[in-house]
Amino acid sequence: MLDVIIVGAGPAGMSAALMLGRSRRSVLICDNAQPRNAVSHAMHGFLTRDGMAPTEFRRLGREQLQQYPNIEFRVTTVLDAKREQNLFTVTLSDESVHTARTLLLATGMKDVLPPIEGFQRYYGAGVFSCPYCDGWEVRDQPLAVLGNGPAGEALALQLLQWSRDIVVCTNGPSQIDAREQAFLNHHEIKIYEDPITRLEGTEQQFERIVFANGSVLPRKALFLQTKHLRRLELLDMLNCPMPERYQEPIAPGIYLAGDVYQTRWVSGAVADGAEIGVMINKELQKEDLTRSYRSLKEV
């Protein structure tokens, strides 16, 4: 029997595994090799790792975990999860079955892009969701924001830190009120209300927006606030609803870490995973000591 099964080997999952492995806990990490940042060419804002490719980061993480014989890493998908008393049993796509005292979900989230031609193709190659991650690389360049209402205005004003040449594309009638419009006008940010037909560019880089009226707007990059789907299918399998107020553990023996909750940056996910790893070890220590105490009383 394992101490912990971790589902997801992104920054949070691997960081938790490292802390647990160093605490001499037996750990199984299951990962389906579908990271959220698969389209990213480089990570940014992470001290000592600024500019590193996410693939290299994951490779180094796995390499460092290999020195701990009590950590096992499997590229696999969790097909089923059950809870029986105080233990969790998971069935993997390789048909193996494993049992653990604790389950940590670091399954991340999925970005949902607009159903417009070109967004999927250029996401990570000129189409971005985070100015702190990608704003520096397109500083002082002509930028576009896809957004409407207060959220669109806020993102456009935020981008002024990186460029003064910004437009807002509302992809239909503007929902930006007079006050917000005044702020945008003050900073010479123009609003385009025409629906977007598609994004165009080279094989590897976004270059322009094509509108339904036939007009074309060259831009170096486009920023948008993507919708997110948290990957919490395993909670459904366990009949474990998310609590109205977030807590750790979210249910006895079940923890969350990283983007599956709220972390957006790699550095934050690493820190979150480390904290959860320590928290899990402390809870397991309490269980071990309680069991030892009960055994002593029975003697």
Characteristics:
FAD/NAD-binding_dom, FAD/NAD(P)-binding domain, FAD/NAD-bd_sf, flavoprotein, alpha/beta, 5-stranded parallel β-sheet, 2 domains, 27% strand, 299 residues, single chain, 17 strands, oxidoreductase activity, 8 helices, 7-stranded mixed β-sheet, Oxidoreductase
Structure write-up:
This protein is of the alpha/beta class and 299 residues long. It has two domains: 2-111 and 227-298, FAD/NAD(P)-binding domain, CATH 3.50.50; 114-224, 3-Layer(bba) Sandwich (FAD/NAD(P)-binding domain). It is built from eight helices and 17 strands. The chain has helices at residues 11-22, 54-65, 119-122, 131-134, 149-159, 178-186, 233-237, 266-298; strands at residues 2-7, 27-31, 71-75, 78-84, 87-92, 97-105, 109-112, 127-128, 143-146, 166-169, 190-192, 196-201, 206-211, 216-218, 221-224, 227-230, 254-256. Strands 1, 2, 3, 4, 5, 6 and 17 form a seven-stranded mixed sheet that branches. Helix 5 packs parallel to helix 6. The longest helix is centred in the C-terminal third of the chain and has 33 residues, at 266-298. The model has no long low-confidence stretch (mean pLDDT 94).
